[in-house]
Automatic annotation (TrEMBL), chain A:
The protein, known as: Sugar ABC transporter permease
Region (Disordered): 1-25
Family from the record: Belongs to the binding-protein-dependent transport system permease family.
Organism: Streptomyces antimycoticus
Domain ABC transmembrane type-1, first and last residues per copy: 93-305
TrEMBL record, chain B:
Name the record gives this protein: Sugar transporter
Pfam families, sorted: SBP_bac_8 (PF13416)
Coiled-coil boundaries: none
Domain of life: Bacteria
Keywords: Sugar transport, Transport
Keyword Ribonucleoprotein: no
Lineage, broadest ranks: Bacteria, Bacillati, Actinomycetota, Actinomycetes, Kitasatosporales
Length: 317, 437
């Protein structure tokens, strides 16, 4: 390996008597720094105004008793204390977890399966890819309305098809047992296109030589998939898992349109409950406390995923 | 011309572009012209929009001032109004559905109007039906002035009844519950024809509860009387129509069935004999392809006392000074006999003023019973009793009641399960009333 060449921009680290290596920062021209800040400014402003600001505001509001119209009153952590005995909150959290931990793996499996199929070099692959991406590109509310129609117990298409096979289909969206699975099926159908595109891009980046080498070594298709495809696809899987879990924890629109959270609270998701607490029950402080808990859950789960990535995700080809 | 730019020129251009965009956006911010009479209202159809446009013209003719109305689809109206009230951008006069008046009044979002009414000799509150005056008041004070008011009535499909050899019900004598149930069962041939339709919600159930002598809210106690024998009799009666008698179209999904228009959609299909609904649906039912009319709501043990509901205009608390004077003049104009004539003549609903009542005209032939019920000449009505946290009561019951209507849980178990949470809400309501007074 050739010895590295030192330039002004890549100055050698200098060891100081007090501590470890100290890297001298490359000197930048003032106008370049200004340019960098100017180009970063819109994104930074957007982040501060639309992301960091509301998170901080929610944190502050969670300490208040505020019904929107009367002046807010500071009540410390009382809103968080209310969460403990609130059965609906825990039920909504359970429903959200159920939705997430069933729908995300299912979506990944379907996405991966379709991506592998499309990666076989089918003719008119672009057409298939576009068609399969359509559900993802369609507005959720519109899709949800169509699925409500498909799920109608008496005359719906799904039960009509099941009837052909002699199966008496359930009352999907109005059944305690079937409402959440019905939502999950719709959600998998709606979102597999996103994962499929990511996986397809990942699959196409894997060098063909590795497959040829595996073939020469006599590896079976399953072993090739396990030893070559899956490890090299792990960055795509990681990205899809992280984004899908975050998205699933925030599920709202399809449940609102398809079941309104019912029957009972069997499909009430956490975001739906937060919305109702804040804007239908006029309890902004309590809604903010709930959203802070949701935020904490998402941060913990995402952090855990990033810790796991060190062991499971391979970035080197 | 050279297409090359120096980096400095590019940066300068980007900065100038940003400034120009910011300036343009701020310049584009639109609002009502200064001094305009601003008012907000829900509007979900072109027909409704036409009525409010006519209201706007009427305001301009009468007040010689620019009318600036904000129209929002009814589903999104309360949320938009909340945000406008909080941000101080609400109109001078805002329309309110009657069941929300205690919610806003107890939170100080709208101002009481008693001082303005007392100081204005031109304004006659006695010209408004007592029911809408009750609905528009909270803790003994008037918070809004009504523009419509009406009792729930029973629509019936004349064609279907004739086809089945059933005489039309009396337009003056309400049917008894027994007669109604018998007819509903007789006229039901499931999958092809049904006897009755309503939504499985408290908004519709409450009329039956009032007719049985029950209520959801009791002013004297800290607990809800929803589990009292009177209310339970009504709940069992309606739930049985759904689950035992199979006299109603099956519930296919909870979202549309909970929406107010679901019963209307069932009725308009032409295979349902009776529908419980308000005269505000007359305009839509006129599109039906069959003969129909309305009759008083069936009489239970306490008589025919269905829910009477209405809507009103109110002034937000933030409106003060000269704006308050303008707001009061605008509110008076929007609820004047002339404006309500426009409203009633368009068939929107029964007007809140007695002097505008004659403008709400047939068809259907029996439409006049609406005013006779409000005057107590035929059957009767019961103003919709709500709490300051009715949103929460509604949501609680919206989650649990459908299970009874679907037969997943008995009516008794459903109400038993709801009562502790409902009573907690009632205590919260009492506290809110105490604090507000």
């Amino acid at each position: 390996m050739a010895a590295p060449t030192h330039t002004a921009a890549t100055a050698a680290p200098r060891r100081t008597p007090r501590g470890p290596l100290r890297v001298r920062r490359p000197r930048r021209h003032g106008s370049e720094t200004l340019a960098a800040w100017l180009f970063l400014l819109p994104s930074l402003a957007g982040f501060l105004v639309f992301t960091a600001g509301p998170v901080i505001a929610a944190g502050v509001i969670s300490l208040l008793d505020w019904n929107l119209f009367s002046p807010p009153r500071f009540i410390g952590l009382d809103n968080f204390a209310r969460l403990g005995p609130d059965d609906t909150f825990w039920s909504a959290l359970g429903n959200t977890a159920y939705f997430t931990f069933v729908s995300v793996p299912l979506t990944l499996l379907v996405s991966l399966g379709l991506a592998l199929l499309l990666n076989q070099g089918l003719r008119r692959m672009a057409v298939f890819r576009s068609l399969l991406l359509l559900p993802y590109a369609t507005i959720t509310v519109a899709v949800a309305f169509v699925w409500v129609w498909l799920y109608i117990p008496h005359d719906g298409l799904i039960n009509a098809v099941l009837g052909v096979f002699g199966i008496d289909g359930p009352a999907w969206l109005i059944s305690d047992d079937w409402a959440m699975p019905a939502l999950i099926v719709m959600s998998v159908w709606k979102s597999f296109g996103f994962g499929m595109v990511i996986f397809l891009a990942g699959l196409q980046a894997i060098p063909q030589q590795l497959y040829e080498a595996a073939k020469v070594d006599g590896a079976s298709p399953w072993r090739t998939f396990r030893e070559v495809t899956l490890p090299l696809l792990s960055p795509s899987v990681f990205f899809t898992v992280v984004t899908s879990i975050i998205g699933s924890f925030q599920v709202f629109d399809q449940a609102l349109v398809m079941t309104d959270g019912g029957p009972g609270t069997s499909t009430t998701t956490l975001v739906m409950y937060i919305y109702r607490t804040g804007f239908e029950n006029y309890e902004q402080g309590y809604a903010a406390a709930q959203s802070m808990v949701l935020f904490a859950f998402i941060v913990v789960i995402t952090a855990a995923q990033f810790l796991l990535q060190r062991r499971l995700v391979h970035y080197d080809l | 011309m050279s297409a090359s730019f120096s980096r400095r020129a590019l940066l300068k251009g980007a900065a100038l572009g940003g400034l120009a965009t910011t300036g343009a956006l701020s310049g584009c911010s639109s609002g009502p012209p200064p001094g305009a009479a601003t008012w907000s209202m829900w509007s979900s159809s072109p027909e409704e929009q036409r009525v409010w446009t006519d209201f706007g013209h009427y305001v301009e003719r009468r007040m010689h001032i620019r009318s600036a109305s904000t129209l929002t689809p009814s589903d999104g109206y309360p949320t938009k109004l909340d945000l406008q009230l909080v941000s101080g951008t609400a109109s001078m006069v805002t329309a309110l559905n009657g069941w929300l008046i205690p919610t806003y009044a107890s939170r100080g979002a709208h101002r009481p109007l008693d001082d303005l009414i007392a100081a204005d000799p031109d304004f006659d509150l006695d010209d408004f039906y007592p029911a809408i005056r009750s609905i528009s008041s909270f803790a003994g004070r008037t918070y809004a002035i009504g523009f419509d008011v009406a009792p729930t009535v029973l629509y019936y499909n004349k064609t279907l009844l004739e086809r089945n050899g059933v005489d039309p019900p009396s337009p003056t004598e309400p049917m008894s519950w027994d007669t109604f149930r018998h007819l509903a069962i007789e006229l039901s041939k499931p999958k092809d024809q049904y006897g009755f339709t309503c939504s499985p919600t408290i908004d519709d159930l409450v009329s039956w509860i009032y007719c049985a002598g029950g209520n959801v809210v009791d002013g004297d106690r800290d607990t809800s009387p929803l589990d009292a024998p009177e209310a339970m009799q009504a709940i069992h009666y309606v739930v049985d129509l759904f689950t035992k008698d199979r006299a109603t179209p099956p519930i296919d999904n909870l979202v549309t069935q909970n929406a107010s228009g679901a019963a209307l959609a069932n009725f308009l299909q032409g295979n349902v004999a009776f529908m419980q609904n308000g005269p505000w649906q007359v305009l839509n039912v006129r599109k039906a392809s069959f003969e129909w009319d309305i009759v008083p709501f069936p009489a239970g043990p306490a008589g025919s006392r269905p829910r009477v509901s209405g809507s009103s205009f109110a002034i937000p608390s933030g409106v003060t000074g000269d704006d308050l004077d303008l707001a009061w003049r605008l509110l008076k104009t929007l609820t004047s006999t002339g404006a309500l004539d426009i409203y009633a003549r368009a068939g929107r609903n029964n007007p809140a003023r007695l002097s505008a009542a004659s403008a709400f005209e047939p068809p259907p032939a029996n439409l006049g019973i609406v005013q006779r019920i409000l005057k107590g000449e035929v059957a009767g009505g019961h103003p919709f009793d709500v709490t300051t946290n009715w949103n929460r009561v509604r949501l609680l019951l919206a989650q649990d009641l459908p299970r009874a209507f679907l037969g997943q849980k008995s009516a008794g178990d459903t109400i038993d399960g709801v009562m502790p949470r409902l009573n907690a809400l009632m205590r919260q309501h009492r506290d809110a009333v105490r604090q507000a007074t």
